[in-house]
Design brief:
single chain, alpha+beta, HIT family, subunit A, eight-stranded antiparallel sheet, 12 strands, about 25% helix, globular
């Protein structure tokens, strides 16, 4: 675990080396609504003919590997980063992305958050689970974005902070979708982290069942989450957003259908990623379309007073 104490510098060094060697592909993006061409290049889980699906975390390229987090996880750079130093915490053994997170997943994730905090920096983590969450790989992984990189491109003089942290304040900001949030105590134990996560997930599952018609069937195993959701993590907050859809198709200024514009857990950081300039132009010119997408991806906030209200 000694390497993780200098994690920010370790990630930056490996990112620069991987970019120089061509092991990863990075494009500058726009903020706050970010145009990220890397998303268009990012493959969904692929399965070659007559073989098992390709697992990018089974044997990650040496040029992308950052460090082990014993005993059960490792860190690797995202091959298709949306911002500099975008990295991933993955399980060494294959575990399903749709399974409920285990205590050691959250323990390893918080170790990354704490390492950045101890180095005077901030880190935002997010987890996508389920078909409607924006998840692209079945091997369990949590993604991390350094907050300083997330701030790049902001207009001078404009203050911006990670949305997840503001969602634990009182009053909380109004959002078009329902979320469940909890502050984290300073240096929480793995047991506490897991208890908070389970509580948020239980609330989200209960809301989702009330929102959609429940036929009473359990389509997953006991380990599998019955809903799609995004989880956000900082060293101060944990936020969970139940998802109803991955995205929405919208009309361009010419009336052409574009999209679907798919959103993942970066929404809980306050960043919305689009993969084409056509999508960017349509949303930047009409904020109502952006509002429509945010309302469509989750449970409308008016249905639950505990979540952020629009």
């Amino acid at each position: 675990m000694s390497a993780i104490r200098k994690l920010p510098a370790l990630v930056r060094k490996q990112f620069e080396a991987a970019q120089a060697s061509g092991d990863l592909t990075f494009f500058e993006t726009r903020f706050q609504l970010r145009f990220s061409p890397a998303l268009a290049n990012k493959p969904k889980s692929q399965k070659p003919p007559n073989s098992k699906p390709i697992d990018p975390f089974e044997n990650p390229p040496k040029g992308l590997f950052i460090t082990d987090i014993p005993p059960s996880h490792f860190l690797v750079l995202n091959k298709f980063p949306v911002i500099p130093d975008h990295f991933i915490l993955a399980t060494k053994a294959f575990k399903q992305q749709t399974d409920v997170l285990e205590q050691d997943d959250l323990e390893a994730a918080y170790a990354c958050l704490k390492a950045y905090r101890d180095n005077g920096e901030e880190l935002f983590g997010f987890f996508n689970s389920g078909d409607a969450s924006g998840a692209s790989q079945p091997h369990r992984h949590i993604q991390f974005l350094p907050v300083e990189s997330m701030r790049s491109g902001i207009q001078e003089g404009v203050k911006w902070d990670v949305l997840a942290d503001s969602l634990i304040k009182n009053p909380r900001p109004a959002l078009p979708f329902t979320y469940f949030s909890s502050p984290l105590p300073e240096d929480p134990s793995p047991e506490t982290l897991h208890q908070i996560y389970n509580s948020l997930l239980e609330q989200a599952c209960s809301l989702t069942k009330r929102t959609i018609k429940d036929d009473g069937e359990n389509t997953g195993s006991e380990k599998t989450s019955p809903i799609s959701y995004n989880l956000a993590l900082t060293d101060r907050a944990m936020v969970l957003c139940p998802r109803m859809s991955e995205g929405l198709q919208i009309n361009s200024g010419n009336g052409d259908l574009i999209g679907p514009i798919s959103l993942n857990g970066t929404i809980l950081g306050g960043t919305l990623l689009v993969k084409t300039e056509q999508e960017w132009d349509a949303l930047i010119k009409n904020e109502e379309k952006l509002k429509d997408i945010l309302q469509a991806i989750g449970v409308p906030s008016a249905t639950n007073e505990k979540g952020g209200k629009l």
